[in-house]
Structure formats: C-alpha cells, structure tokens
Amino acid sequence: MRHWTWLAVPLLIVVAGYGGYLVGHPANSTMSAAGSVGTGSPPSGSTQTVGTGGSGATIAVQAAAIKSGTLTTQRSATGVVSASKQSTVAARTSGTVSAINAQVGDSVKAGQTIIALDNTDLTSAVDSAQNALDTARVQLTTQTQTVNGNRAQLAQALASAQAAYQSAQTSYAADQKLYAIGGIAKTALDTASSQVQQALSTLTSAQNAVNQNNSAQNGTLLQLRLAVEKAQITLKQAQQAVSNARVVAPFDGTISAISVAGGEYLNAGTSAFTLVSNNKQVTFSVPPAESTSFTDGREVSFVVGQQTYPLKITQNAGTPTNGNVSLTARFMTGTTPALGTAGSVSYSSAVGKGILIPSTALQADNDQTYVFTIENGKSKLHNVTVIGQAGTQAVVSGIDDGAQVISTPPSGLLDGAAVTTNAAGARASGAPGGPPAGGPGGAP
After folding, report:
1. Using CA atoms, how far apart are residues 276 and 338, in angstroms rounded to an integer?
2. Which of 10, 57, 266, 409 has the smallest set of CB atoms within 10 Å of its CB?
3. In this structure, how many other beta carbons lie within 10 angstroms of the beta carbon of residue 297?
C-alpha cells in the first residue's frame, strides 16, 4: 500500500502540471496586439482566415467606399491691415507756405489743395504772358487782314492785265494781216506792236505784285503765327507754375502726416504731407510651396477676434523674401478693421492628391504601412504609401479607387479573415480572443 502511495504522488504532480499547461495554452488561442501590428509570418501550412473572434469567426467591421481626390487642410498666417496706397507728396516748386488747408486725420479728395505756396510773382508772370499773347494775336490778325485784302485787289489787277495783253495781241495779229495787203500804214502796225509790249509789261508787274503778296503770306504771316504759338507756350508754363504752387492730394484718402508749417519756405521736391488711401488691404506671407496657389482673385478669410472678413488676393510677390512669399489681399466688404489691425488669414492648402481614406484605416508594421479592404467577404491587406494626412483623413497611393476599406480594423485583424459590415451577422465562436502575435499575417 505504501508502494502505491509513493508512485501516486509523482503521477499527480505530472498530471497537474500538464493540465496547467493546457489551461495557459489552449488550441487555436490568440494573443491581443491592440493598436499595432508586429512583424513576422505564419508558419508553414498555417491559415490566415481566422479573425479576432476565434477560429472560423466572422468579424464585424466598419467599412467605407474610398475615392480619389485632393486632400486639403486649413492653414493660417498672420496678416496686418494696411492702406492699399500711401504717398509722400512733395512740392513741385519752391515758395513760402501761405496756407495749410487740412490737418492730420482729415479725409480729402483727389485734386484738393492741401498746402498753398505764395504765388504773387507767379501770378504776375501769368499776366505778362497773357498780355504778350494778346499782342501777338492782334498783330497776326491785322497782318492777315491786310494780306487778304491786297490779295483780292492784286488778283483783280492781274486779271485785267491778262485781258489787256490778250486784246493787244489779237489787235496786233489783225493789223499784221491788214498791213500785208496794204490795208494800213507801217506806223499803225508799229503802234499795235507797242501796245502789245506795254500790255505785257503791265501783266508782268501785276504778276510780281501777286507773288510778293503770296510771299508775305508764307513769310510774314508764318512768323506771326509762330510768335502766337510761342506766347501760348509761355502762358501755359506760367499757369503751370501757379498750379505747382498748390500741393494737392493725388487720390482720395486720409492725411497721415504734415511736414511743414505756415510761413515756412518749402523747396521744390521737399515732402509736404503724407496721404494714405481710404481703401484697405491685408498683407501676409506663406511658404513658397504654397504660394503658387494664390492666384489673383482667390478668396481667403481674415479673422479678427470673432469677426471674419472675406478677402480676395490682388498681388503675389512670387519671389521669396526671408524664406516666405509676400501676398496682398483686398477686403470684399465695406466694413473693415482699423489700419494696423493684426489678425489671422485662413486658407485651404492642398496636402496631396491620391486615394482618400480615413486616417484610422492606416496600420503600421515597422516601416511598412498598410490598410485592409473587403473582397468577397474577406479582409485583404494592401501595402500603401502615405502621401499626407490632415485631420481625420489621409491621402495614399497603392490602392484602387472605389474599394471598400475597413475604416477601423479590429486589433490583430489578419489578411484573409472572414469579415462582415453587418454586426448582427457576426458569428462568435467560443470566447472572444485576439489574433496571433506578430505582423498582418501572424507569427508563430
């Protein structure tokens, strides 16, 4: 009896140990690998169709139809409100400041006189130039009337001389015929010849008088016209000098600074006042890689506190300065923040172009990134290249447009596991477990 008792004790120890092993390592057991996928491959002859629900279980998953597109994200840059135009206005002539017609902060209109210079001497010059012009015009008018009056008389005298000459020639020709047949004496023929010569002389004198009158028109009158034109130029210059004594606003805006005081002598080219446009803009900078998308007319938003203002791009510098590209945008509404206000310019930026998927669909195994799709009721592993991520989405390559991607793969999901998007159709087989440890295909 003692002999059997001695043999039973070791036997019980062995049985208890084996039972403990079976409890800790049941057949087809799985190990949770929550949140990550390890490396490795299944042993030779092993199957990859078992999911997280145990051997042969159909796993309920969530899936989404994916499509190609461009993934964008909202970015922001600091912007500052500034005037669309600013000009430091200088005097165009020298003189003593006689009047200042606006103060800093005043709104003015284009062409409005802001600074006036003493123009007494300039006004006198205008009067003198006007008198000179009037005199030149009178001389031109008088001489023109004289030339035109003489032209009519001379033309009439020339016509008479031409008629007399032709008549004398006709008479002389007739007398020659009469003389040839003895009809008149030689003295009568000589008299007719003398009349022809006298008529020719008169005609020549009349023609010379007409030519001299024409020369007067082409010479004297031309000089008088040039004198009038010169006087007009002198008057215009004198009037421009008077105009230059007024320093005016080049555009509608607000006076931001006045550089002179009343009675001060202001040299030509010296700053008189500074004017900023009433139209406002926002300036900001973006990285060079993003700047090419900011074409003229593109709309962005300017956020100041709780207020949002729509903007349109008006200028793109193109060339980076200090690493960024400067941009300018104008306000699209009448209500605008004060000059110098800083805010945030909000805009969309392209992350990448490819297949858009939920970020939660991405799985990683060391340096390899992959996703699962559903094909014929089975999970299908696809290695992908991540182009970019933004928010809850990612853009990838390596997967077909229109596929059903598992948006949130269960921990340890295997390639080829039976899956369903109908939670009620999932079949639990035994107690829930996890996939084998290791990579997407499992590992021993």
Report:
1. 13
2. 10
3. 8
How far apart CA 17 and CA 15 sit, in angstroms, is: 5
Query: 357 and 394 in contact (C-beta within 8 Å)?
Result: yes
Residue type, 40: G
The SS3 of residue 13 is helix
- Burial group, residue 296, by CB count within 10 angstroms (0-12, 13-18, 19+): exposed
User: Virtual CA dihedral for 123, 126, 131, 137, nearest 10 degrees?
Assistant: -160
Contacts of 22-31 with C-beta under 8 Å, sequence gap 24+, read 28/54, 28/55, 29/433, 30/54, 30/412, 30/433, 30/434, 30/435, 30/436, 31/412, 31/434, 31/435, 31/436, 31/437
Question: Domain ranges in the chain?
Answer: 86-118+245-276, 121-241
* Number of Cβ within a 10 Å radius of residue 88: 12
Question: Distance between CA atoms of 380 and 417, rounded to whole angstroms?
Answer: 8
d(CA 125, CA 240): 11
221/219 Cα distance (integer angstroms) = 6
Which residue type sits at 426? A
Burial of residue 363 (CB within 10 Å: 0-12, 13-18, 19+) is buried
Number of H helices, E strands in the chain: 5, 23
86-118+245-276 CATH pick, 2.60.130.10, 3.30.565.10, 2.40.50.100, 3.10.290.10: 2.40.50.100
Supply 48's token pair. 């990859």
- Amino acid residing at 93: T
Q: What is the reported pTM?
A: 0.51
User: Count of CB atoms within 10 A of residue 152's CB?
Assistant: 10
- pLDDT tens string 202-234: 989 888 887 887 776 666 778 888 999 999 999
In 160-289, the DSSP E strands lie at 246-248, 253-258, 265-266, 271-277, 280-286
Question: Which residue in 361, 357, 373 sits closest to 417, CA to CA?
Answer: 373
Structure-token pair, residue 75: 């970015």
Provide the angle, in degrees to the nearest 10, between the axes of the packed helices 186-218 and 220-244: 10
CA dist 421 to 48, 195, 376, Å?
A: 19, 135, 12
The pLDDT tens digits of the residues spanning 222-275 come to 888 899 999 999 999 888 888 888 999 999 999 999 999 999 999 999 999 999
**Digit-coded pLDDT (tens) for 77-101:** 999 999 999 999 999 988 899 999 9
